[in-house]
Each structure stands twice: as C-alpha cells, then as structure tokens.
Amino acid sequence: MANPGYYEALTKSKIFYPNPSFQQIELDLKRTYPQRKDKDKLERDIVVLRRFLNAYVLRNPTIGYCQGMNNIASKLLSTMPEEDAFWTFCSAIENILPLDYYSNMLGVLIEQQVLEQLM
What we know:
Blueprint: H1 6-12, H2 20-29, H3 39-59, H4 69-79, H5 82-96, H6 100-103, H7 106-118
C-alpha cells in the first residue's frame, strides 16, 4: 500500500463540504442491495458502502460520485477487504477510465452506441 493510513483518515474525516455527490450516495445506498433479505446484514453493508463512497468523494471531488459507482463498489467489497477494494476502485476510476467518461458522459454515450451497433 503506497499511502498507509490514508483511507482510514478519509473514512474518519468530519469534513463534508457542499457536494451533491453525498446526497446522491444516500439515494442510491438502499438501491444497491434490492435482493437482500437479512436486515442486519443489509444495514452493515450499507454502513460500509456509505463510508467507502463518501471517502472516494473526499479523495476526488472533481469526479465525485456517479450513479452506478455503488454497484461497482459493492461488488469489490464483496470480494476483498474494504481498503483493498477502495484502492482497486480508485485505480479503475482514476487510471483506467478517462476523465471525460464522467465529466460530459462522452465515454458512456460512445459505449452505448457501440453496444447498439453490436446488438
């Protein structure tokens, strides 16, 4: 890990500046696990997912949160420890996908066109 303690510091941060990402995360949390029947497990998973996504917004407010990130994060969290999942998520979002994928949704629109042509 290149920056020990960084993720923990983000998760413990009490700084929540005005950013619509935090509100959108709250809307999407319960939508993430629609099939979950065990309420105790659901609540634990939501607490972890909220902490994870809020930490990402604090790390990278330029990208912030986009709908669908909750699903990616939940899959990562189901397969690896929380901090490992966070760094994997950061790497995918910040290093693999181009910035315009989020800022003007160009990447999403292109992928939709490609999928439509393939179908």
